[in-house]
Amino acid sequence: MDSFHEQLVEDSAFLKAEQRLDTELVDKLILQLNRIYPQILSDKEATKFRNLDVPTSVRLGELLTNLQGKGEEACKEFYRALHLHVEEVYYSLPTRLRLRDALDPLASPHVYRQRHVMNDRGPLFFLGCFGVAVGMAILYYYSEAKVAGGSRALGMAALGLKRKAQEVLVWYTEESLMK
After folding, report:
1. Higher pLDDT residue, 127 or 82?
2. Using the 8-state DSSP alphabet, how is residue 158 labeled?
3. What is the rounded distance in angstroms from the CA atom of residue 124 to the CA atom of residue 7?
4. What is d(CA 94, CA 86) in angstroms, rounded to the nearest whole number?
5. Quick check: is 127 in a domain?
6. Which CATH number does the domain housing residue 58 bear?
7. In the chain, how many domains are there?
8. Which residues contact 85 (CB under 8 A, 6 or more apart)?
9. Is there a domain that residue 98 lies in?
């Protein structure tokens, strides 16, 4: 597992570009670090990073650079504050997503592509084909004795089939006509 410092270096670009981190949320993070951990962010530093004349993304970038310079504990406390105040951003960080995927492969199931798609037409197509097959089987079974002209119907049915099935049906039709 990466150290918090390494994670913050990796997540910095994402955090600077994140639109959900507005002025109010950045201020909450700064105040959290300043009030709870004054050794990490002094009053002077907190005032500097809360200056509203500087754009939020610039202030956040400077804060992240400052925390990275202060070491592992400062980075860890930043993540703790981020988790506390902006949970949805915390869980969408690149390092969090990678960590979650590595620890719990069932959390985001992998999508496996099928190598061969047999039929994408749906259940009605299947039922229609099944009905035709059953009809042909019944016709074949009763054609010799009870259904007049059944062999001709099989010959006509062979027109829309693949080559092997067509040959079998035509052969059967020709054989029954010779009788």
Report:
1. 82
2. G
3. 53
4. 15
5. no
6. 1.10.533.10
7. 1
8. 25, 28, 29, 32
9. yes
CB 96 within 8 Å of CB 90:
yes
Residue 162, amino acid: K
Q: Which domain holds residue 79?
A: 4-103
What number of residues does the chain have?
A: 179
Q: Is residue 40 assigned to a domain?
A: yes
Domain assignment present for 44? yes
Q: What is the pLDDT of residues 18-67, one digit of tens each?
A: 888 888 999 999 999 999 988 999 999 999 999 989 998 899 999 999 99
Alpha helices in the chain (DSSP H): 4-17, 23-36, 43-49, 56-70, 72-85, 87-90, 94-103, 123-143, 150-157, 163-178
- Residue closest to 78 by CA, chosen among 43, 26, 42: 26
Cα–chain center distance at 100: 14
Side chain identity at residue 82, one-letter code: L
Reported as a single tens digit per residue, the pLDDT across 125-175 is 888 888 899 888 888 887 765 444 555 555 555 555 566 666 666 666 666
CB 59 within 8 A of CB 51: yes
